[in-house]
Structures are given as C-alpha cells and as structure tokens.
Amino acid sequence: MSTTGNLEKADFERERKTLLVSLHAKALDCAAAKPVLGDRSAAAAAQRLDYDYAQLRVRTDDAIAMVIRAKQLDDWTAQFLAAHPAATVLHLGCGLDRRCDRVERPGTPTWFDVDFPDVVALAQRLYPAAEGQRYVGADVTDGDWLDAIPASGEVIVVAEGLTMLLTEAEMRALVERIGRKFGHGEYIFDVYNTIAIRSMNRHQTIQATGAELCWGVDDINDVTAWAPGLRLEQEWFIVGSPYVGRMPFTSILISRLMHLSPKLRRFSRLVRISF
C-alpha cells in the first residue's frame, strides 16, 4: 500500500482524464451515508493517486448520476453472467473501474479489461489481480487487440462513459468487429442524445478535462440498423432511477420533469442490444 510520500501519478489529458472523474464519483459515493455502489476499491485507489480532484469540478448530482449508471451496468452484467456463466466479458474503456470485483461471477467467465496501455499499467499497480480477469493495453478502436481474444461461447460487451468519446464510425466498426468475432452476445453501454452532446461539451467538468464528446444518438434504432441480428432489448433512463432521490432537491425536480419528456429523458440512458 502506498503511503503519503509514495503516491501514484495520474498524468492523463483530455479523454483519458475522464476516467478520473468516474473514479472520483465512486469514491464520493463510497463515503456517503447511503452509498449506491459502496465501491471501497475505488475509494482506496482514489486515495493512492497524487491528484487534486477539486480541479475536476464534479457536482454532487453529476457524481450520483455516474454511480447510478455504474450500478445499472453492474446489474445487467450480473444478470447476463447468471444466464451464461462461461461467457466472455469485454469491459471496454475500463479506466480505473473494477467492475469485476463488484459483479458476482458464477462459473468461470473470462474477463478482459481493455484500455490504453498507460491506463492499464496504472490500474495494475493500483489493484490486485482478480481470478479470471486480464488486462489488455490497447486503443479500443484499433482492431488488432481483438485478434488475441479467444472467441468461444457468449460474450457481453460493457462500455461505461466510452461511446460519447468515439465517433459514430468508430463505434459502428467496433460493434461490427465484435459481432463477426463472437456471433452471439450482448452490448450494454450508456449513450447521450445529440442535445446532451452539445450541452455536456459546455459542462464545467468536461471542460476541466479538455475532452470533447462526439457521438450522440437520438433514436437507438439507428444503431440496431447497423447489422442484421442487432436487437434492442432494453432502454433505461438515468432520470427514471429511484436513486435520483439521493440528489439535491433541485436536481431531483429537474430529473422528474425530464423523465416526463420522451426527448429529454433520452438525454442520458443505458441500452442493452443483443446480437
């Protein structure tokens, strides 16, 4: 365990810096009186980084929205693995998240955490190895990394806070490559609509990271039209979560009003797409 004088550096810029936002949100949740995730690994990892999280300007409601997102993706992953215990898990753009520690994994699933080599190197220093879990240091948009992944049985592809950092062409190519490789499985990820992309690029936290959000989806049927066999199983709205009640009063009110509007409730949502 690192001490105060032996902290890990987190010298990330732009898109990579968004992983610190997610980590900080999980650490804040862990310290809350009634946490949503209660991820102690994330809290410990956040303390081991030599980083001033205040510069990210993360608001309470935004932090809660991020852990709501993570909780639902955890639940869907656990449900899939309960039905397919020997499945392969591709956790894309994993950052410093340890979903493999939070999700019950019956059977012997092979879990691949994929992110840039420098991100993976830091994650390996922060977290102990987990049974069945492996890191892959690569840009997810580079197709070469997928060649080394064994294709057997079902696959679940999990992406949290990634899709909006890619272009539509990059995301489509990724979906098509994985579909050709595995044949059957499920994609679960969060997505913004085009209103949200414009709004979030002006958000104080996104501006603090220097990242630029690119891809927004108004109609998820545009995604399922990419390839034969893609089918929307579920679309889940952040503002409809019961955990929204943990937010400050004004944010609760805004969320409830947004949920009444078909367009605004799609500002930020999660989708399950089978193939």
Distinctive features:
single chain; 275 residues; alpha/beta; seven-stranded mixed sheet; two-stranded parallel ribbon; 11 helices; globular; methyltransferase; methyltransferase activity
What can you tell me about this protein's structure?
The structure is a single chain. Helices cover 39% and strands 17% of the residues. The protein has helices spanning 18-31, 40-47, 60-83, 99-102, 117-126, 144-147, 168-182, 194-200, 204-209, 221-224, 249-259, and strands at 8-9, 49-50, 88-92, 110-115, 133-137, 155-159, 185-192, 231-237, 268-274. The mean pLDDT is 93.
Summarize the structure.
With 275 residues, this protein is an alpha/beta fold.
Topology of helices and strands:
Blueprint: E1 8-9, H1 18-31, H2 40-47, E2 49-50, H3 60-83, E3 88-92, H4 99-102, E4 110-115, H5 117-126, E5 133-137, H6 144-147, E6 155-159, H7 168-182, E7 185-192, H8 194-200, H9 204-209, H10 221-224, E8 231-237, H11 249-259, E9 268-274
GO molecular function: methyltransferase activity
InterPro entries: Ppm1/Ppm2/Tcmp (IPR007213), SAM-dependent_MTases_sf (IPR029063), TcmP-like (IPR016874)
Protein name: Class I SAM-dependent methyltransferase
Oligomer: single chain
Strands, total number? 9
Low-confidence stretches: none
Radius of gyration of CA atoms, rounded to a whole number? 18 Å
Summarize model confidence as the mean pLDDT.
Answer: 93
- Total helical elements: 11
Structural class by SSE content:
alpha/beta
Q: How are the strands ordered across the major sheet? A: 5-4-3-6-7-9-8
The helix/strand order is: EHHEHEHEHEHEHEHHHEHE
Calculate the terminal CA-CA distance, rounded to whole Å.
Answer: 42 Å
Silhouette: globular
Percent of residues in β-strands: 15-25%
What does the main sheet amount to? Answer: 7 strands, mixed
Helix percent band: 25-40%
Pfam family, one: LCM
GO molecular function, one term: methyltransferase activity
Protein name: Class I SAM-dependent methyltransferase
Keywords: Methyltransferase, Transferase
